[in-house]
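REVIEWER CHECKLIST
Item 1: Sequence provided? yes
Item 2: Single chain? yes
Item 3: Sequence as submitted:
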Amino acid sequence: MAVERKLPDEQEDDVKEKLENFFENLSAVFFCATPHNGSKSIEDLAKKIPEDSRNQMLALMSVLGSAMSRINADFSLYRSGRGNDLKLPIFKTYGIVPQNLTSQRGFKRTMVVLEASARYDMDDYFSVSADHFEVCQPEGTWAASLTQVGEAVDEDVSKIRNLKR
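Item 4: Structure as written out by the authors:
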């Protein structure tokens, strides 16, 4: 027996309106050290974790894995506007990747995400003087991973917002 969850119509309308509002205001998507084509370092580290304790997301990190490939293809199709008749938002994608090796949280002087894996379908790409975790979890607005890209991003987002007017 299949069970289907259905929102009342007024809730559906509210969710749809919020989603449309979100897309109208979307100007940029940032990928901070994201391994679009997997990461050998993460894959190796995951093998050390007992299988019944592994987070499901770790399966997506396998190098050139089919699950991540499908996600990437869907995102690229969405960005291109091909295959649907929706009015898609205009937004840019930014890839931010560290230049420094990571020596924390189980990694020993490792480049966690290689540049080739992080460049997938990016409009703009920044290589910053930081390690993987400094890019993914900056300490504050003064962090190298943010200050190096801040002005360029601000300028691009302003241009996109002006196009929407």
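Item 5: Key structural point noted by reviewer: The mean pLDDT is 75.
Item 6: Recommendation: ____
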